[in-house]
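Narrative summary of target 7.
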Amino acid sequence: MESHPENVGASLILPLIIGVALGAGGPTAAETPKAYMERLYASYRDASFNPLTHPSLYFTPRLVAALKEDARLAKGEVDYVDGDPICQCQDPDGLQASVTGVSQKGPDQAEVRVSIGLTGYDARPATFSLIMTHKGWRIADVSSPDEPSFLYGIEKSNREQRTGH
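Modeled conformation, tokenized:
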């Protein structure tokens, strides 16, 4: 088969167009940490949204592993994770979240500060440590006034559950 130089451009551009079309609406490598968190909180407009249903879409592999171990060790009961770490709640009714600040910690790490309000409660701050993965930004840890490190807390609880202490 003879190659035609004028067709080379089309053969290179077509996969790019298909890739962009398939990825429309999802995260992009160019998405900022602020835009990622705003898109994530917008997901709560769907009453059935629960980030723990598909944790790898929102959390880093290390945090996903800790969440799965917590669920396994709990054997169907509530253990360390007794709510949604993103909305800092069990029921996101009336959730109002706003990004109050972003600290870029390098090209692939950021801290995003969020004010989280729920119906009947005062807004409270939370800080999300984000890491850029090959799939986009993911939450590596969450801190709040009550819990300096969600990741540390769940890993500690899992260790204690494994050893019986």
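The two ends are 70 Å apart (CA to CA).
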